[in-house]
Amino acid sequence: MNDPILIPYCDFHEDWALVAAGNMDDHNAMTVSWGGIGCLWNKPVATVYVRPNRHTYGYFEKNEYFTVSFYPGEYRKALGLMGTKSGRDCDKEAEAGLTAIPFGESVTFAQAGKTLLCRKLYHQDMELDRFPEDVKARFFGSEPAHRMYIGEIIEIL
Ligand SMILES: Cc1cc2nc3c(=O)[nH]c(=O)nc-3n(C[C@H](O)[C@H](O)[C@H](O)COP(=O)(O)O)c2cc1C
Questions:
Q1: Domain presence at residue 6
Q2: Ligand 1 nearest atom to the CA of residue 80, by list position
Q3: Mean pLDDT confidence for 127-135
Q4: Domain containing 35 — which CATH number?
Q5: pLDDT at position 58, please?
Q6: Dist CA 32 CA 10 (whole Å)
Q7: Which of 11, 30, 107 to mutate for ligand 1's pocket (most ligand atoms within 8 Å of CB)?
Q8: What is the maximal distance between C-alpha atoms in the chain?
Q9: Which residues line ligand 1 (CB under 6 A)?
């Protein structure tokens, strides 16, 4: 039996992260700063929130696995670019200077300091009418609410 995964400390808010899904031939990644690491059903899990209008969303829907990767400070600009351009319109990975590498049945980037490989366990669409009013006003003008994905962390690179 493999060693159990120790739940890692990750600071989404301060450090940001890339979430990616797909394979080496066809994948997409984007920046996130909302998310968490924890425990669900006695499993170590990562939770991320992806709006359905992101190009990355389709890849999350099509694939059983996704990765969450964290980067040294020097890649802040690259993460900024991955979070403002869409893979629908350009090769943003190349523009950001990131190199995709395989990780399990998914992908991450060679520049990552840490990557969590996750298998989708659960997802749910967040409901706007359950949001606090100030959150709704600040973050949800005309954009759709996020789909929450909870993935079991099965390997850490
Ligand atoms: C710092 C930062 C944090 C972000 N966090 C999220 C997030 O948690 N969820 C989300 O859906 N989009 C988030 N975004 C927006 C996406 O990264 C952005 O829309 C991206 O261009 C989508 O790329 P895609 O269309 O290639 O998927 C964030 C952007 C930035 C710059």
A1: no
A2: 31
A3: 90
A4: 2.30.110.10
A5: 98
A6: 12
A7: 30
A8: 49
A9: 16, 28, 30-34, 49-51, 54-56, 80, 83-88, 146
